[in-house]
Amino acid sequence: MLFEIEGKIIEIFDVVQITETFKKREFILDHTENNNGRDFTDLIKFQLTQDRCAVLDNLAINDTVKVTFNIRGRKWEKDDRSGYFTSLEAWKIEKTNTGADFEGQDPVPPDEILDDLPF
């Protein structure tokens, strides 16, 4: 089952080679929801694996994105102990602030805006 969530990237980690055949890359998403006038913020860690690690190469800190992901769970056993872990596996990341972010552009002077009016 796939899930989607929107938020702002606040941290991007380097690719980590876990074994010869497995690598992963993690990032942190700041997800804030407003509920009855109060903001609730979650800092959520996602991972990308294998060839999907490169998806983060085109993204930066403070980019607002929509993440499509699934939830993965595994059991581990070692030295007569066992435990479980859960990971959020990102499949697709889309910028949602594209076109709305005008940073780096010079603002249009007010007199140029007025000169463009048809009356």
Contiguous low-pLDDT stretches (5 residues minimum) are 99-119
- Following the backbone from N to C, one meets helices and strands in this order, namely EEEEEEH
Terminal-residue CA separation: 55 Å
Please identify, by name, the CATH architecture. Answer: Beta Barrel
Principal-axis shape: globular
- The CATH superfamily bears the name Nucleic acid-binding proteins
Oligomer class:
single chain
* Number of β-strand runs: 6
Largest sheet: 6 strands, antiparallel
How confident is the prediction overall: mean pLDDT? Answer: 85
Individual helix count: 1
Describe it for me?
The structure is a single chain. This protein is mainly beta. The protein has one domain (3-115): Beta Barrel (OB fold (Dihydrolipoamide Acetyltransferase, E2P)), CATH 2.40.50. The protein is built from 1 helix and 6 strands. The chain has one helix at residues 110-115, and strands at residues 3-12, 16-19, 22-35, 38-49, 64-78, 81-95. Strands 1, 2, 3, 4, 5 and 6 form a 6-stranded antiparallel sheet that branches. It is globular and about 50 Å long.
